[in-house]
């Protein structure tokens, strides 16, 4: 992996250059003590220091709602391209979200590849950015606080400069096209990078014990904690919506003007009451506690059995956005009997 250095003053020019490779998406301040992922026109609005965006990058790969197929009377169904986004550059991606992107790849590209996801994934350039944890980050506990691959370029801020890791041939192409912005990394850059890494490791305030967690969850299916959380949870789906790895969706056929038939795909959530309803009206998870437990078990137990890793990356979005203050770390501590 090639490592370079870029002065901080070159960042605006670098962001402008990234526009040549596709629509530039980056975190911006939303004016309400939070950040959103937005398409960038004015690069001065970009906030690389943003800790987390409310909605993650998954909206760039699969729209919250899009038409999969469309057909007028007497015609064969066709894909209207409602989910086609073209070339995109995602700037400011934290290590935990890079790991989340790899988890989505497992779900949508393993076995039969989802063509709607694949089309956008192949045209996405990922530029990572080294973040600093707050009191809601627990990615260090999930082994997702760093990323060694899964990106095209990765910028780590140092004093008055960035350490730039080149992670792919596309990243190398971007560097070659803007060679004047970069210079080889020096021994001092390495020393400062390692110092920052040690300081960052000590900065984490939140941790979750994941040792033997899948087995402990299997033993705790009847734990009263699930009824208690079910009574508190609104099942609003906020945690699923902001989670970078939640990938549940629903499909429905609709008829619009002039009898045009459409098949629409929409983000869904296992917390919604109707999610587990089947033909005939039976609901396998009509109880809120069952739905809450299912979501936690999928993240830390079922996904581990299938893929050998949890599907939670510790980004803290669910903690930050739960309207009733449910904290995933506290939930697992209670299951362990630690609270």
* Tally of contiguous helical segments: 11
Proportion of β residues?
15-25%
Total number of strands: 11
Instruction: Give the quaternary arrangement of the chains.
Output: single chain
Q: What structural class do you assign from the helix and strand content?
A: alpha/beta
What are the low-pLDDT stretches, counting only 5+ consecutive residues below 50? none
Please give the largest β-sheet. 8 strands, mixed
Distance between termini? Answer: 44 Å
Strand/helix succession: EHEEEEHHEEEHEHHHHEEHHH
Per the principal axes of the C-alpha atoms, what is the gross shape? globular
Q: Please, what is the average pLDDT?
A: 94
How would you describe this structure in keywords?
339 residues; alpha/beta; eight-stranded mixed sheet; three-stranded antiparallel sheet; 20% strand
Describe the structure.
- The structure is a single chain.
- The radius of gyration is 22 Å and the shape is globular.
- It has a domain at 2-63 and 84-203.
- The protein has helices at 11-18, 95-109, 115-121, 169-177, 187-203, 213-218, 225-232, 238-242, 288-307, 317-321, 328-335, and strands at residues 2-7, 23-29, 35-39, 65-71, 88-93, 124-129, 153-158, 161-166, 183-184, 249-256, 260-267.
- The strands form two sheets. The chain has an eight-stranded mixed β-sheet with strand order 3-2-5-6-7-8-1-9, with helices on both faces.
- The chain is α/β, with parallel strands linked by helices and 339 residues long.
- The protein is built from eleven helices and eleven strands.
């Amino acid at each position: 992996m090639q490592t370079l250095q870029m002065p901080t003053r070159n960042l605006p020019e670098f962001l402008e250059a990234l526009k040549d490779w596709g629509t530039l998406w980056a975190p911006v301040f939303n004016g309400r003590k939070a950040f959103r992922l937005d398409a960038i026109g004015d690069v001065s609005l970009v906030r690389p220091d943003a800790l987390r965006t409310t909605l993650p990058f998954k909206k760039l790969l699969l729209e919250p709602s899009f038409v999969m197929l469309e057909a007028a009377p007497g015609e064969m169904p066709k894909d209207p391209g409602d989910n086609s986004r073209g070339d995109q550059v995602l700037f400011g991606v934290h290590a935990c979200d890079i790991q989340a992107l790899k988890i989505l790849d497992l779900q949508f590209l393993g076995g039969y590849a989802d063509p709607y996801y694949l089309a956008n994934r192949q045209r996405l350039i990922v530029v990572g950015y080294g973040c600093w944890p707050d009191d809601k980050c627990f990615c260090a506990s999930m082994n997702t606080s760093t990323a060694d691959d899964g990106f095209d370029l990765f910028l780590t801020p140092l004093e008055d400069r960035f350490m730039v890791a080149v992670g792919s041939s596309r990243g190398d192409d971007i560097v070659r096209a803007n060679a004047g912005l970069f210079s080889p990394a020096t021994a001092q850059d390495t020393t400062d990078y390692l110092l920052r890494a040690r300081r960052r490791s000590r900065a984490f305030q939140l941790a979750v014990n994941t040792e033997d967690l899948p087995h402990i969850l299997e033993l705790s299916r009847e734990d009263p904690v699930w009824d208690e959380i079910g009574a508190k949870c609104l099942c609003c789906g906020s945690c699923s919506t902001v989670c970078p790895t939640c990938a549940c969706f629903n499909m429905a056929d609709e008829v619009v003007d002039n009898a045009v038939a459409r098949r629409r795909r929409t983000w869904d959530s296992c917390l919604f009451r109707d999610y587990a309803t089947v033909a005939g009206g039976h609901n396998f998870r009509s109880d809120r506690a069952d739905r809450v437990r299912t979501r936690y078990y999928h993240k830390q137990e079922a996904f581990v059995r299938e893929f050998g890793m949890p599907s939670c990356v510790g980004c803290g979005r669910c903690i930050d956005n739960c309207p009733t203050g449910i904290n995933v770390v506290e939930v697992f501590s209670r299951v362990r009997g630690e609270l």
